[in-house]
Amino acid sequence: MKINTIPPQTTFSANQYTAHNKAQLDKQMHFTQQLNSALDATERTQPDKDIAASIGVDYQGISDQARNYYQVARDNAYKRVDLGLPEKDQQIQLYQETMSEIMAMPIEVNVEPHEVNEALLFNNLGIDFLAYKALKIRVEMLDLTEQEIHNDKALPDYEKDKLKDKVDELKARLKEAIDTLLGDSEDVPLETNSNRTADDVFSLYQPT
To answer: In 89, 168, 200, 202, which residue has its Cα 20 to 30 A from 190's Cα atom?
Structure first.
């Protein structure tokens, strides 16, 4: 089954649109392609629920995409660590640089088969699902950072607490960006959200 999220009776011509409208159309076409790819994957493979349970599939937990991006963030952060510092200070700097990388690194996301219904709902509401998912992945990456800090046996508790406070601050900033994207912010009207990308929303909460 293919989904066309553009009304079939409408014929689009490049000469009929401003640059803004063309950008909106391109975004809509990209979303439709993502959605159809996810539907194709769903139709090709319908996993048995018992098998999914036996291999520990947990869609409520940290996504594989977040874990993969987190590893990239840590690898990039490590390159900026001052190896001349004492070992404890190197570890603290690694966490700090990882958090900075998580907040700044580019993230590309796809619509997964299990997300098709949610993506359609977002589209019907005029909300950019891919932008929403990218912000959620950053939150998941910060969750992984917090988990790693918590499990670090080399750092004293007071150093862990300072790092966790920073994680909480960044997560709050991202969650506020998500609220803005969903139209839950009092500062941004809902009708403006369909024109926002993840970068547009996220930039509102970057430190100045």
So the answer is: 168
